Amino acid sequence: MPGMYYGWIVLLVAAAAMVGTLPGRTQGLGLVTEPLLADLGLGRVEYAQLNLWATLIGAGFAVGVVVSSIASAREWCSPRSRSPSASSSD
After folding, report:
1. Is 11 exposed, middle or buried (0-12, 13-18, 19+ CB in 10 A)?
2. Among residues 18, 41, 64, 83, which is most buried (max CB within 10 A)?
C-alpha cells in the first residue's frame, strides 16, 4: 500500500508475538525453577524479584524502541528535515 508506514505493522506483529509467548515463558521457567532455586540457593521471593526485574528491564527496552521509532518518525516528517525543492532557485 503506497504511503503506508510499515513500521507500525512490524510493531503490532512484534507486540502480538510477545503476548503470544508469555504463557510459554511462564511454562518454560516453571520447568527449571526448582533446579535454579537449588543451584543458586535462592528463595522463592528472591527468584520472583529477579524475574520481575528481568521482565521490567526487557519491557524497558521495548518501550525505548517504540519511543525511538516515534521520535524518528516525527523528525522524518517534520518540515525542517526536508531539503529545499529543486525548483526553487536563488
Report:
1. middle
2. 18
Range of the domain at 74: 33-79
Question: Is-contact 51 43, C-beta < 8 A?
Answer: no
Burial code (b: 16+ CB inside 10 Å, e: under 16) for 29-52 equals eeeeeeeeeeeeeeeeeeeeeeee
Has residue 21 been placed in a domain? no
Considering the domain boundaries, does residue 60 fall inside one? yes
